[in-house]
Every structure is written in C-alpha cells, then in structure tokens.
Amino acid sequence: MHFNGPIVRPQTDADSLFIEVTVGCTHNSCTFCNFYDGYRFSVAPISQIREDLEEAKAVYPRVRKIWANGGNPYALATDKLAEIGKLIKEYYPESRISTYARVDDLTRKTVEEMRYLKECGWEDLVVGFETGDDTSLRYVNKGYTAADILLGCTRLEQAGVDYRMIFLGGLAGKGKCEQSARTTAELLNKLHPYIMYLNSVSILPGTELYEDKAKGLFQEAGERELVLEFATLLENMNNDIYIFAAPNTTPFSFFMDLQPNKGKIVSEMRAYADKMSARDEKMSAQQRSMRRSV
After folding, report:
1. What is the Cα–Cα distance from 6 to 225, expressed in whole angstroms?
2. Is residue 126 part of a domain?
3. With contact defined as beta carbons under 8 Å apart, do 198 and 230 qualify?
4. What is the CATH number of the domain that holds 219?
5. Domain range holding 253?
6. The pairing of beta strand 42-43 with beta strand 22-23
7. pLDDT digits (tens, 9 = 90+) for 17-67
8. Domain for residue 149, yes or no?
9. Is 96:126 a contact under the CB 8 Å cutoff?
10. Residue 77's Cα: distance from chain center in Å?
11. How many angstroms separate the CA atoms of 144 and 107, rounded?
C-alpha cells in the first residue's frame, strides 16, 4: 500500500480501508493546523490507486467502508473524481466511499456535478467547517465564510449526498466562545448533516495561532469556557443529528442522537463546568498543550 502523506480521518472511520487519493491540502493555510506541513498537494496516479486496490482485494475480498485518504480529495476535478470513484467501485462495488471536502470544494461544484459524483461512488463527505462565526473563520484564515458553508452544504443536500461536519471549539478566543456557539447553531439549524464531531482546538507549536498567542494577539479560552461552548452549541441546535465526542479532543465521550438526549447532555456539561476547579482547568490545559495535532 502506498502512503506518501499522513492518514487523517474521523475516529468513526478507523475501521475503513484506507486508499490514498491525494496528499496534502489545497489550502494548507489555516492558522491552527499542522496536519499537512511539508506535504505539497498532489494526486495519486491511477496506477497507484489500482495497485493498492488489487493488494487490498487479495487480503480483504469484501469491504464495507473505504476512506479515500488526503486532505481534501473532493477538490479534484469532477472527471478525475469520477474516474477514481468508478475504479474503487470496480474492486469494491458494495463499499461506501467517504472522504474530506473543504467548503470551497463544494462551492466550486454544481449540484449536477455532485449528483453525478454520487453515482460514481462519492456519497459521503466529511466537511471540516469548524465554526459558523465569520469573525473566527476570517481570523484563522479558513478561506470561506458562513454564507459559503450554507451554499456548499445546501448543494450537497440538493444532490442527495450524505455529509458530516466537524466543529472546532475555541477558535473565537477567550470570552467569545459562547456567542460564537450561538452563531454557529443558527447556521447549523439551516442544514442537515447526519453527524457532527465535537472538537476543541489545540494551539500547536509551529502554527501561526501559536505565535499569535505568544505575542498576546490571541487569548486562549479556558477549559471551562470550552465546555460551556459545547453546551451552548448543542442547546441551540434543533437538528435531527448524531453528535460524536471523544476524550482525545474533549472531556467527554459519547455518540448520541441529539434531540432525544439534548436536555440530559447539556445539563451534564453545565454541571461539569460548574464543578471544574482552577486545578482541573490547569490540568486540562496541560493535557491539551501536549497534543501535537489539532
């Protein structure tokens, strides 16, 4: 198997067959991210993808889930994606192909293109939208706006493409996270992803956000505020959606249907925040500072 870049995927896709489609990220300029440092965006040759599929098929004759690896393979031209999707389905016709997409990958494609790509196998996308707060999006240089998120994801829905979203808490900075969460919930209530992942940003050495913090230009939210940001976000969401939280990125571990469980989880989050001592916050912050990925 060929892997010329890092394997980055949601926790829920760990049981997938990983096939490298691209390396790196087309944007690679978010101020908090170091996932693809040192990797220029490139596309895996069709011959490499075929070779990997043949090798995998010999070991795993049937595969239910395939993760098309890369920072944002959905950035590729429609014809190229169609060729790759058809190739994967040639070896694994029963599989479900999932991959990452940036918001601007979505706004560059028409509904008709998305519908065609779904027919070619691209039926499940993971969109790292991070936040619906334009001020935060602009500050961390995401390269798109909340209006773009709404446009791109609405196109996916019109094309019948399933999608998941990744929320990244803490981007608004100290004292601003709860209002940012309300703004994000307002956006999410207009959309219909089937899963959202809860994460909090880790401010990593070597990133622009780390330098901004060192210079006093960015004030990091405390652990209590991050928990209240999650609670505020979920409390204000009306979506029929599943929420995933894992202890490597949050103080919580759950995978739940939001609406039937919203009151309970929000109450637990607020109770957790109320009981958090200064020592608890310090320990949580130390654990976060030890991470080497977002």
Report:
1. 31
2. yes
3. yes
4. 3.20.20.70
5. 11-289
6. antiparallel
7. 999 999 999 999 999 999 999 999 999 999 999 999 999 999 999 999 999
8. yes
9. no
10. 21
11. 10
Q: How many domains would you assign to the chain? A: 1
Residue 294 counted as domain residue: no
Picking from 174, 186, 178, 199, the residue whose alpha carbon sits closest to that of residue 147 is: 186
Query: Residue 98 pairs with which residues in a beta bridge?
Result: 67, 124
Residue with tokens 């390269």: 143
Q: Which backbone phi and psi does 155 adopt, to 5 degrees?
A: -65, -40
Rg of the chain in Å (alpha carbons): 19
Q: Which tokens belong to 219? A: 């004030």
8 A C-beta contact, residue 39 and residue 6: yes
What CA–CA distance (Å, rounded) separates 177 from 171?
A: 8
pLDDT band for 180, please (50, 70, 90 cuts): very high
pLDDT tens digits for range 115-136: 999 999 999 999 999 999 999 9
Residue 256 buriedness (CB in 10 A; 0-12 / 13-18 / 19+): middle
Tell me how far apart the alpha carbons of residues 171 and 200 are, in angstroms, rounded to a whole number.
8
Residue 51: which H helix or E strand, with range? helix 46-59
Q: Tell me which amino acid residue 271 is.
A: A
State the virtual CA torsion across 100, 102, 104, 106 in degrees, nearest 10.
Answer: 30
Angle at 51 between CA 23 and CA 41, to 5 degrees: 10
Q: Is residue 5 one of the residues assigned to a domain?
A: no
